[in-house]
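batch job 7 of whatever, protein = DUF4127 family protein
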Amino acid sequence: MKHWRKIFSIGLAVVLLFSSMGMIEAAGKEKSLATILMVPLDDRPANIYFPQHVGLSSGVEVMIPPKDMIGYFTEPGNGEEISKWILKNADKADGFVISTSMLAYGGLVASRTGVKSLDDSLKDIQVIKKLKELYPNKPVYVYDTIQRLAVTAINDEYEKYYSLISEWAILYDKVVNLGMDGKERLAQLESLIPAAVLEDYKKARARNHTVNKLMIDWVDQGYIDYLILSQDDAAPYGVHRAERELLIDKVNELQVQDQVSVFPGADEVDVVLVSRFVNRFFHSLPKFFVEYGGIDGKDWIAPFEDTTFDYNVQKHITSAGGTIVGNEKQADIYLLLNTPSSNSSTRSKDIDGLVNRTKELIANGKQVAIGDVLIVNKADEELVMKLASEVDLTKILSYSGWNTAGNALGITVGHAASRYVFLAQKSGFGVPLYEQTAKAHYEFLLHRFAKDQGYKNVVHPAARAYIQQIGASEFSLGDKYDLVNSFVKEKLTQETEYWYQYFDGKQIYIGSRGNKDFYKTISSLERVHVKLPWPRIFEAELEPTLKLN
C-alpha cells in the first residue's frame, strides 16, 4: 500500500509541476480566440506584419506559410508547396484568407510576368476548392489582383520600361478601345519597347484576367465565400479598364454582387480580409460615419486609381465587414479622411479643421480612425505633426498614410474595425488577453506613425541621398545592401524612439468585463527591429516592442 501511495504522490507531483508550467505559459501568452490561415500576397511587411498585428489586436492569430515557401523579391513563391502546407494545417484554422496571386504565380511581382503558364497557374489554385469541400463551414476569403499598368522596376533598365509601358497601356485603351486620338504615338511606343518585354506583359495580362474570371465562377459555385479583385496601380484610362468592366459584368450576370468586391488597391487587402473574419467571428457590423477633411470623395480620383474615392471608401468598409451610416449619432467609428483641399490657400485651414474635429470627437469619447490618403507613399507631414502636438495619439483608433490612397484607406479601416469590435465585447475575457491585444494594437499604431512619417518623410530621402553618395541603385542594392541596411536601421530606430515619446507613460484602456474597466500604462519601448526586407529602400520592416504595466 505504501508503495502505491509513494507512486501516487510522485505522479501527483509531476501532474502539479506540469500544470504549473502550463499556467506560467498561459500567463505569458494567452491562447488566441481564433486562428486564420493566411496565404499572403508576398513577404513584405504590408502583407505579413500588418495583418498579423491587426489580427492580434482583436485576439486572432494569423498563421502564414514558412518564409521559404512564399518567395523573396523577384524569386517567386512555390504554389505547390504552399498548397500542401494549407491542407496540412487547415484543421487548425477557423477561416482562410488566400492570395490567388501567391498561389497561382508566386506573388505580386511574379504575377506581372508571363513566365508561369496558365495551366500551371490553374493547377496550383485547386487547393481553394479542396478547402471548401473539406471544411464547408469555415469561411474562405480570396483575393486576386487586376494587373497594374506598369512592369516592376526591378533595375534601372526596367525603370525605363515602367514609364513607357504605362503610357502604352493608357494610350492603347484610348486609341483601340475608345477610338480616341494617338495612333502615331502608340506606334512609336511599340517601336521603343522591346517586343519581348511587351509580349511578356500582354501574356501576363491575358493569363491573369482568365484567373480573375475563374475566381468569380468559384464564388458562384460556392467554393469562395468572399472575393476581392483589387486593381493594382492604375489610372482612369488603361487596358485594365476594359478588363475591370468585363469582370463587373460577370459579377452582375451571376448575381454575386454581395460576395465580390472590385476596387483600387492591393497591399492592404490582407488587412481588410482579416478584419472581415474578425467581424464575422464576433457577429459584428461596425458602423462608420465618413468625413472628408478636404474635398468630398465623389469629387476626387486619387493618383494610381481609376474610380472616384467615395466608391473606394464604400467598397473597403463593406469588404472589411462594416457599413456606412449617414447619421453620425449611429456611428461606432468616425472615419476622417485627409483629402485634397479645394485650393492651396485653404490647406492649413483644412488641416486645422481635421485636427480640431479629432480633438472634439475624442473629448466626447468617440472612436476616431484617420486615413491620411492625400500624398502617395507617405504621411502628410503638416497633418501628423499637428496631430502629435495637439492630440493624445493613443486615443486614436487607427491611422495610416502608407502608399496609395486605397492602401492607406484599407489599413486604416481594417485596423479600426478589428480593434473596435474586440473592445466592444463585454462578456469578459481574461486580463492577460486584454493586455496581449492592447500591446499588439499600440505597437502597430506606433509603427504607423514612425513608418509613414519617420521612414517615408525623413529616413527614405536620407537613404536615397546616401545611396547616390556610395554609387548604388535604389532598385537593386546588390553588394551595397549591408551598408544601406545599417544606415536605415540607425535612422529609423531614432525616428521610432522620437515617436514613442507620444506613447510613453500613457494610461490606456484595454477592455471591460461587465461593469469593470481595465487599464494599463505604456511603460517602455523595449526593442526596435528594423530591416530592409528586399534589396531596395521602398519599404522597411519596422517592429517596435512595447512593455505595459
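notes: The CA atoms of residues 98 and 142 lie 5 Å apart.
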